[in-house]
Amino acid sequence: AAEGENYEWTDMYKRMAEEAREEGFEELAIKFEYVGKVEAAHEKRYLKLLDSLKNDKTFKGDAPLGWKCRNCGYVHEGPEAPEICPTCAHPKAYFERKVENY
């Protein structure tokens, strides 16, 4: 996925912006450049996720964390997500780090 995002922001949208600009569509070229920036952010996120997975940090943390089940909303407090949600019995893969950024 990261490779695809890299291609999109380094080649595809860059080329599309250049072509739009050459054809006189400056506003469209600018939009393509902005979409390219979004794709670069996607690549960065995928690479961080891959690093987290490779280093066994996807469902573990260095400090006690909150882990929220995406199926039922149960919140587990601890350094890693539980193997099974005690409320709805969904597997560990349904847990995400609980973040309150509002």
TrEMBL record:
Q: Rubredoxin-like domain location, by residue?
A: 64-98
Q: Does the keyword Transport apply?
A: yes
- Highest taxon in the source lineage: Bacteria
Record flagged with keyword Nucleotide-binding: no
Show the InterPro entries listed in the entry.
Ferritin-like (IPR012347), Ferritin-like_diiron (IPR009040), Ferritin-like_SF (IPR009078), Rr_diiron-bd_dom (IPR003251), Rubredoxin-like_dom (IPR024934), Rubrerythrin (IPR052364), RUBY_RBDX (IPR048574)
Keyword set for this entry? Electron transport, Iron, Metal-binding, Transport
- Record-level Gene Ontology MF annotations: iron ion binding; oxidoreductase activity
Residue stretches making up the Ferritin-like diiron domain: 1-57
What protein name is recorded for this chain? Answer: Rubrerythrin
Q: Which organism is it from?
A: Hungatella hathewayi DSM 13479
